[in-house]
Amino acid sequence: MNPQGQLAIETVGLVKAFGDQKAVADVSLSVPSGSVFGFLGPNGSGKTTTIRMLLGLAEATSGQINLLGHSIPKQVGEALPKVGALVEGPAFYPYMSGRNNLMRMDSADRNSNSGTRQTRVDAALERVGLSNAAKKKVHAYSLGMKQRLGLANALLKPRELLILDEPTNGLDPQGTREVRNLIRSLAAEGITIFLSSHLLTEIEQLCSHVAVMRAGEIVAQGSLD
Description:
By secondary structure, the chain is α/β, with parallel strands linked by helices. Helices cover 30% and strands 28% of the residues. A hairpin with a 2-residue loop joins strand 10 and strand 11 (217-223).
């Protein structure tokens, strides 16, 4: 595990430019291990672009990224097995059951152990409260259930860090409560959670630390107090 007191995520001078336009400008993040870190900002402020760079899905124009002590993108293969992510809404096969979707996604992961697959899938469904709906086809799931299935997918293996991009976006109040309660229980297990949101109340309710993004720049960062 990444020891308490160390940084789970650290970026220095992170820049992502599209031509002359900087979507992310000189972003330096310090996310302590064991924290629930809120990444707050309006839609279009550069949060998702930053997250895509953290996960090695987009290349930074300049700057440094450290994820659980590994340099990204160079050591992305070492870092990512310890990271679960929910970015831009999970894509599932609508006419397969929740359980079969997870089985399929796990089998697509070349680092995954096929011998423990069924046990891990069932444990992940249990953890997000979807055991009763495991055999139901995903097209019959509510939005909140789909988000929880996305979280179950992120939890198919032991994770040290969860990166969640707007996990309650588009959910009704009940779905929002379910996902927030799940995030609290995961944080209580000691998993570091990096939570992107445009909702101030969500950050206030869930997070111990926060960074505020505006127009590609960080305008404030620190503990919630």
